[in-house]
Specification:
205 residues; 50% helix; mainly alpha; two-stranded antiparallel sheet; single chain
Length: 205
């Protein structure tokens, strides 16, 4: 898969994840789960990963920012993609990738920007990523290494606060990932790519 195809796949995942989040918000406001009328499907590289709706309950995804106002853009956050949601999208687009120091650094930068805290949140997503990277450095077998899916699958629930991803957030996360990569690169479907895709989509909302 080319880098352009990976970029589009990442945006597809984020768009469909955001649609599921919006549906959940509507359900919570109305006090009931909508069934049977609409479906939400997750795609990665053109393949169906998860499908929701069509008579089944939409999974609950309720990051704290879903009812907050995006002060910078003056828009309702329900229409914006948060940093936490972008991290969860990376768990789909690059979920089988073993966690490396570059990933841990990018996740920490994302957490700092989402929460506004400079210190790592105990039990948070950055702490989990650093533990995974440390463990993986000592683990010779690839099959035994912790992956991005292990760390990021419930990223929004591990963030005490969250915010819509912006271009500056994307640049900060990309810089952290590059500085901690031996080749000074970012993974084409990894953390930085996912936050960048979310920021691009938020600019178009």
């Amino acid at each position: 898969m080319s880098q352009e195809q990976q970029r589009r796949a990442t945006e597809e995942v984020i768009i469909t994840r955001d649609a599921a989040t919006v549906q959940t918000a509507e359900n919570e406001i109305s006090g009931q789960t909508q069934r049977g009328q609409h479906g939400v499907t997750d795609f990665v590289g053109g393949q169906v990963v998860n499908q929701y709706g069509q008579g089944s309950a939409v999974p609950t995804m309720t990051p704290s920012s879903i009812y907050q106002t995006d002060a910078d853009a003056g828009k309702d956050s329900v229409s914006s993609i948060t940093i936490g949601e972008a991290l969860e999208a990376a768990a789909l687009t690059a979920g089988q990738k073993p966690v490396e120091w570059s990933d841990a650094a990018a996740i920490q930068a994302a957490e700092v920007r989402a929460t506004g805290r400079t210190a790592i949140v105990p039990g948070g997503v950055a702490a989990a990523a650093q533990s995974a990277a440390t463990l993986n450095a000592r683990t010779p077998r690839a099959d035994d290494k912790a992956t991005l899916a292990d760390v990021l699958g419930d990223a929004t629930s591990k963030l005490p606060t969250d915010k819509p991803a912006s271009r500056r957030d994307a640049e900060g996360v990309a810089g952290a990932e590059m500085r901690n990569d031996p080749n000074l690169n970012t993974h084409p479907a990894g953390i930085a790519a996912s936050v960048a895709a979310a920021a691009r989509l938020n600019q178009n909302i």
